[in-house]
Amino acid sequence: MTDKSTDEPIFLVGSERSGTTLLRLMLDHHPKIAFHFESEFLVTPLAGGADWPDLEDYYAMLELDRSFQERPFEIDQSLDYPQLARSFLDQRRKQAGKPIVGATVHTDFDQLPRIWPNARYIHIVRDGRDVARSAVKMGWAGHVWEGADRWIEAEQAWERFRGQLRDDQYTCLRFADLVRDPRGELMRICRFIGVPFDEAMLAYPQSSSYDAPDPSMAFQWKRKMDADQVRIVDARIGDMLVRRGCGLSGHPPIEVDQRQVRAFRRQSRWGRARFRIRRYGPALYLAEMITRRLGLRGLNRCLVRRMNAIDDAHVK
Description:
Helix content is 53%, strand content 9%. It is α/β, with parallel strands linked by helices.
């Protein structure tokens, strides 16, 4: 039988590049909380379907999932899908020897209640201009217009999802507040979780590559994006930024028509391709693309594993 603490986990949700890793490290350093990193593999197969996914397909997906493979869990093939997903968090909790478990989920987090109806949620939001800039830097987009996609999708998903939750099931914080007053924000988060604040939460720089929180980590777009880029992102997400208390940049507003959007998307595709060719090399890049389009699954899986290894080396 699954432990109650695994039946009521804490999920950290929000866009990628929104400070989820920083907050996850803080939470994981609490002596009573075990927090797993990116765990979209728990729910991605559920998106868009009413039925549980085929388990053989799920096992195959896990073989190529970078987050799962970084710290692979035991896959008990006697379990059904929801039981297996719950078992992964239970393994994480037991490995850490802590009573409370949680995980970060950036996408499809609206599917989590299907497996954990009693879960609670911490929603973190960062200025969308910082997220768009960072997505380009990571090679996920080749233009800031498309770089804002992940932020838009996550924030719109949260707006829809929040209405399904009780008030005591979620809390929200802004990345800017976390780096400005980490102790105060962590105390508030700990009250939500039901544990006392512990100074160990701020000791994560001793065992990770992340520096101590610094207010300059927020609103980097003001120093690192040119005016044209800022105006483009403002034109796309200005209303959402205002609703989240971020405000507009103050630059003269612009209107973006569909012709420009198509041009931005083309620039982004070429930008992503150039990034991937630089990282993986032309041969591996083309081989993966061709085998994927031809449906050569076995060969493509080998190539994806090689790409994952290259990505892991860059992260480390």
